[in-house]
Amino acid sequence: MNNILLSVDKLNAKIQNTEILKNFSLEIGENEIHVIMGPNGSGKSTFSKILAGHPSYEIISGQISFDNKDLFDLSPENRSHAGIFLAFQYPVEIAGVTNFDFLRIAYNEKQKYEKKEELDPLEFMEITQGFLKKLKMKPEFLNRNLNEGFSGGEKKRNEILQMLLLNPKLVILDEIDSGLDIDALKIICEGIVKNLSTKASLVVITHYPRILTYLKPTHIHIMMDGKIIKTGNQELIDILETKGYEAFNQ
Amino acid sequence: MDEIKKQTNFEINQVISQPYKYGFKTEIEREIFPVGINENIIRLISEKKKEPQFLLEYRLKAYKKWIQMKTPEWANLDINSINYQDITYYSVPKKKEKLNSLSEVDPEILKTFEKLGISLDEQKKLSNVAIDAVFDSVSIATTFKEKLGKSGVIFCSISEAVEEYPELVKKFLGSVVSAGDNFFASLNSAVFSDGSFCYVPKNVICPLELSTYFRINDKDAGQFERTLIIAEKNSTVNYLEGCTAPQYSQNQLHAAIVELIAFENAKIKYSTVQNWYSGDEKGIGGIYNFVTKRGLCIGQNSNISWTQVETGSSITWKYPSCILLGNGSSGEFYSVALTNYYQQADTGTKMIHLGKQTKSKIISKGISCGSSKNAYRGLVKIGSNAAYSRNFSQCDSFLLGSSSTASTYPYLDIWHSTAIVEHEATVSKISEEQLFYLLQRGINTEQAISLMISGFCKDVFTMLPMEFASEADKLLALKLEGTVG
């Protein structure tokens, strides 16, 4: 087993009065790709938001350690600095704030956290150019307001651009494949696989096995009713494709 | 959930509740008049300033009108009653009769302006901005006068203008805002003590940005200044005013008048960054900012543009307006008003279209935090001769926290069938999801809010002169800058 990056131990969490995660446990090592599949409402997105520190969820019990730190000690922004990156299923729009300003502030906050020098707009432009090319994005993209009027594909690409700039240790892709055509999906997956640092790991939350042809998973988890009920490899997908989630529902 | 909501609110409140950084006061020797207002005080002011007879008569006429008027009550404001007999109407630093150079200005006052980031030393200051500094009732110094003089531009205190160019003052003073215009304008006309004067001759593009910095220092003194800007045919001028005041627990009155006159093809761009002391977190103290600002586009194709960033004052009551008299003339109003704690703002504009094919544009952004009240009030009038005129108005409100209010009062008065008038209004809040998105990218609450606010205000900030755009952004960030993180 690789060095452990994330360890979730018997996590119970709720939103308002609805319990969503029930005794959820998961361990992720460095340089691994984990896929979590499960029916709607099984708690996949909740898990990703809790990792990132969304304020609406309440932890009832359990522990999460990330990179040898107690995750619950870290504010959402410090979780980001520590290396957790959530690629949102629905990236929000922010009026009047250019993509460029947003990206540069986010980048410089991380630099500050790591006690490195902040970049001025010109220096930042230079490093961004390289990533734009990899994701086949036009530079004009930077001058538009953050996610405002972006197509579904553009929003997802922009998420990956942020990921590349912030160089995280753990990336959670929350249904990155929804609303993407095959070409865009391929570009995005290549962008992720080729550019992530070698120790980084991925958590891929998805409904569609298609993405797995581009991202070769090391672990596949089936999630139902707030916890992982089965872990395995490709053969789980085959069962899913033929029999659906019913097959695991015993 | 409620807990979490509370916490988010609490964080937002911390972020938007910054102490006022300009609240210090300066100890200087002053010459002050007894408190209160009456004919004698007015005569005394006029005498002190060695004014010509016409001005004394103007003041007395205004005073006679004022005593018969009542405080306007139509605005969406709760104003404690003001005892006009408790106010000092004239307070000036003691000084030599005539200042020849900056070295004769009380060093305490120079230090005050330095502390405010306004250097009056021409060697040190922004090389392309001329500044007139007004301290309580008088103008302390005007920079770059000579350089401006070479191009024929007159930029000086209004007292100096009365002495040196009485004909210009007599011709234009009160020509846009008359002595009986409204309660506060009449009061100002009776007791105004100083202010800035600018005259740009025909075909001259003013080579420098002009700026006046107003500082109220005295606890009991009101500030009643007047600004008069005249742009002759084919001329252009950009003007900016900034304002701060010390922190006192009682309210101080600021009742100013600004008059702009643009002749044929002339352009006047007037920008304000207002950061008067706004009172404390319980709403105690702060400036009552009751200002009448109006521009007259008298010539064909003339243009007057108002940009204001209003962050200070306990109460703001101002409606920078344009009278579009010349055919083809145009007026613009770009405004950001931020209110916090118990601040109240009732601000907006009047666009009076009288000439044919006149155009106006209104962009107003109101941000309300804490328990504050923020109202946009605007009138668009298209007169019966103003054929083919058009207006576009956009009024956006942003609510931070749950106890503040935002209101929009648009008035339309259209007397010509060819008019095109559009009005758009929105109200928005920072959503939890937006905040979470930015936090997830490592941007803390404080920066996230200030980023979203500055995005919200972008349409207005881009209208500020370059030198001041970043200043306004900083001022807003300062107001929003917090103790979290």
Structure in words:
The complex is a heterodimer of chains A (250) and B (485). Chain A is an alpha/beta fold and 250 residues long. Chain A has a single domain, classed as 3-Layer(aba) Sandwich (Rossmann fold), CATH 3.40.50.300. Chain A has seven helices and ten strands. A six-stranded mixed β-sheet of chain A has the order 6-7-8-3-9-10, with helices on both faces. Chain A has a four-stranded antiparallel β-sheet with strand order 2-1-4-5. Chain B is an alpha/beta fold. Chain B has helices at 2-16, 39-48, 53-67, 107-115, 145-150, 158-164, 166-172, 183-191, 432-440, 445-456, 458-461, 466-480; strands at 30-32, 91-93, 129-135, 138-142, 154-157, 194-200, 209-215, 225-231, 236-244, 251-254, 257-262, 267-274, 286-297, 303-310, 315-318, 321-324, 330-339, 344-353, 359-368, 373-382, 390-399, 405-414, 420-429. In chain B, strands 5, 6, 8, 10, 11, 13, 15, 16, 18, 20 and 22 form an eleven-stranded mixed β-sheet that branches. Chain B has a ten-stranded mixed β-sheet with strand order 4-3-7-9-12-14-17-19-21-23. A two-stranded antiparallel sheet of chain B has the order 1-2. In chain B, strand 3 and strand 4 form a beta hairpin. In chain B, helix 2 packs antiparallel against helix 3 and helix 10 (445-456) packs across helix 12 (466-480). In chain B, 55% of the residues are buried. The model of chain B is unreliable at 1-10, 123-127 and 481-485 (pLDDT under 50). The A-B interface holds A 15-16, 52-56, 58, 75-77, 79-81, 85-86, 88, 91-92, 94-97, 101-102, 105-106, 109-110, 113, 145, 162, 166 and B 1, 4, 7-8, 428, 431-434, 436-445, 447, 451-452, 454-459, 485.
